[in-house]
Specification:
The protein is of the alpha/beta class and 215 residues long. The protein has one domain: 3-Layer(aba) Sandwich (Rossmann fold), CATH 3.40.50. Helix content is 32%, strand content 20%. It has helices at 5-9, 17-30, 45-56, 95-104, 118-122, 140-150, 175-185, and strands at 36-39, 61-64, 85-86, 91-92, 111-114, 129-134, 154-162, 189-195, 198-203. The strands form two sheets. It has a seven-stranded mixed β-sheet with strand order 5-2-1-6-7-9-8, sandwiched between helices. A two-stranded antiparallel ribbon has the order 3-4. Helix 6 links the parallel strand 6 (129-134) and strand 7. The chain is globular. The relative contact order is 0.16.
Length: 215
């Protein structure tokens, strides 16, 4: 894995090293089938893992984030970082930090930043995807929307990856766990790997898209 661990450790973010390595390994495989996409890049930690793998197989990573922070990153919340707060707009702004990360990782020719809400990017999306990584906001409505608008774009044999999946509500929020269960219940996906809070599902080859795959 051609990633400087000291560099990645200094990128702001909440991704575990083992989970990051899993992202990299899955993108190496998926990137040979088509482009990858992540929802929720924050300052670019996950983007470096995914983007580096895409670069190595001559693929591309679409990185979607409105860069205004998720619910838990707002002022007064648990994961608020005052260094990312823009006093002029009065809002969080992570895009500048994200661009610095991508430039420093030499990924500007492999990563396509899309600065908007996930559902807006999906509105006219037409490119089949080999991998979709869901790690944006963690409110149920937000995670459900991310799953609802992107799962159908995953190629047969491609991968859906969901971060922060906690079966026990004492350990963390239940929205990603709920979406993970919806994906399994749809019949379109099977689980292939678990790394800490990261779940890796694969779209079943030959599985027909039901008229309504969502619950």
């Amino acid at each position: 894995m051609d990633i400087d661990q000291n560099f990645i450790n200094n990128v702001k973010g909440f991704l575990d090293e083992d989970e990051g390595r899993c992202l990299y390994e899955m993108a190496l495989t998926a990137g040979c089938m088509g482009p990858c996409l992540e929802i929720g890049s924050y300052c670019g930690k996950s983007t470096v893992y995914l983007g580096t793998a895409c670069k190595e197989v001559n693929s591309v990573l679409f990185s979607i984030d409105h860069h205004r922070g998720s619910e838990e990153q707002q002022p007064g919340e648990e994961y608020f970082d005052p260094g990312l707060f823009d006093p002029i707009s009065g809002r969080l702004d992570t895009f500048g930090e994200f661009r610095k990360t991508i430039a420093a990782a030499n990924l500007e020719d492999s990563v396509v930043p899309i600065v908007c809400r996930s559902e807006l990017a999906a509105r006219r999306w037409a490119t089949p995807l080999s991998l979709v990584f869901i790690d944006g906001g963690h409110a149920l409505e937000t995670v459900y929307t991310d799953y609802n608008v992107w799962a159908g774009h995953i190629l047969s044999g491609g991968y859906l990856m969901v971060h922060d999946v906690f079966a026990d509500p004492v350990q963390g929020g239940q929205a990603p766990f709920h979406i993970y269960n919806l994906a399994l219940a749809s019949g379109l996906f099977r689980e292939v790997k678990t790394v800490k809070t990261l779940r890796v599902l694969q779209r079943r080859r030959g599985a027909e898209m039901p008229a309504n795959i969502f619950i």
